[in-house]
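Take a record:
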Amino acid sequence: MGLGIKILGPWEITADDEPVRLTGERRVGVLTRLALSAGQPVSADELLAQVWGQGTATTAGKQLHIVVSKLRGLLSPYQDDDVIATVSGGYRLNLACERVDAHLFSLLGRQARAARAHGEITRADALFRRALALWRGDALAGMTASWARVESARLEEERLATLEDHIDLRLAAGDHHAAVPVLTAHVEAHPLRERSRAQLMLALYRAARTSEALAVYQETRRVMVDELGIEPGAALRRLRQAVLRRDPALDLTSPAQRTTVVEPAVPVELPADTRFFTARATETAWLHRTLTDIVPGSPAVAAINGPGGVGKSALAVHAAHTIADRFADGVLHVDLRAATAGLQPLSPYEALSRLLRSLGLDRAALPATLDEAAARYRSLTSTRKLLVILDDALDASQVRPLIPAGPSCAVIVTSRQILASLDSTSHLRLTGLDPADAAALFARIVDAGRVRAEPDAAQRIARQCGGLPLALRIAAARLAAQPDRTLTQLADQLADPSSRLDALEHADLAIRDSIAVSLQHLPGRPVGRDAAHTFLLLGSMETATHTVPATSALTDWPEHRAETALHHLLDARLLEPAGPGRYRMHDLIRLYAREQAALHLPEPVRVTASPPRFDRA
């Protein structure tokens, strides 16, 4: 949970919901002032003027520096980053606004009003209740400085307006009976607020208590004349006349006249986590930080890229399980199908249609065009706290319309290529497991007794799978389907390059299919044709690493053309970087490329490509 600062009541700071002791009026004052502007810089001059007062001593600047240092020492054990950053001319509290109850209150209020505007009354009601429940007493209770009193009055006015907005919602939904006691107490505490007086009159009238509604008006008039020397406002006078003539506009005589109550859809689409997830602790921690460190104004987006079969989807789902409970409005999951053999990737409109249905939109109400669907999606997500998993994306143009609008949302995208043109996105390049982790994963998913009986063969199988979790899963599935087969027999089959890809195929899983999908989605002609041809030629080579000059010689193309083809293969993850100016082809991909070259290249071309001299540039 991390740090939390509570201002809406007696001042309090917590770490993982446990109180943290902080003493000293100035320390509390500085931290509170920074918390009120969490994520934004506050000048040192402003801190000195407000916390130290007008008669600021000449040593106050040094005292402020000491106070900040003490606060950092107190808070740093609970916050990974520099919790109080020094910025030009002042300081900034590096704490998500949602961790300060006053900011969370404002955020929930905005979300509630937006939900009400969209007709989601049940959701709006829940958000209003969450917001108002944050209050534990008077804001900044116990703080007597003039700036604190000003902030307390501002927050109190915001609370009253939010309470009255919530009452309006309840009255529109026909909840007038339950609203009467709440409004009665509110009016007694704040007798000069005409809006709440009008709400009480309306609630009493709808509860068939007309005389009491008129009595509220008379009492309001008496108080205002005695206290302010003025008559009630025009709106209140018009309401009195409407009550006297029993105006039908005041009634809620049928459900059709009420604001439509829409039960908010809370999707729970997160796939099950795998029992055999192994290693990736660093990557999981990176995802956790990226997706939970809220940046004001935009959702957090983490894009995982890597070759087929490397475990991108498994990592995304595993990481999502660790943070799903932070997203009160649910988890959405869409397979964008860019890595599914035999199927075309979803169009952005198809993907949006699925997301909109998951958010409760009826099929008949789906917008007809991509632009309209994207606008509706932004509207529905603008006030929600959703985790969205966009799995197996093709490119940035497919993903861009699917990013939610809500700043409290988070997105995990998996793709073979780097989606570098997606704005405000953090990128993670996923590579194969190292030999130790690959062996550990294989040992977890294969019968433990068989691994103990043939540990050396298990190590050989893991090595031949090249660190790809998909290959390890297929090998384990073949062994499970053939309980009489020894690990040594499978290891021997994998050791033979001519039969390795056959061994890595079982039921609906095949390394060949995974590689073929990447070829299928190479860009269109002519650059895609160049890349595909280069792929076949490189597969005919006896070496796994390549350079631009060597590829230029191999293809008999100018270097810029050869380099473009290599870059497209790199984007498709059919090649990997192997150092400055060098590219590497994974052993399993090279075996597939060699097979395809035998099918599609004339023998003279393959023979010409075979000698390794072309890669010595």
Summary: The CA atoms of residues 250 and 299 lie 42 Å apart. The chain is about 50% helix and 10% strand.
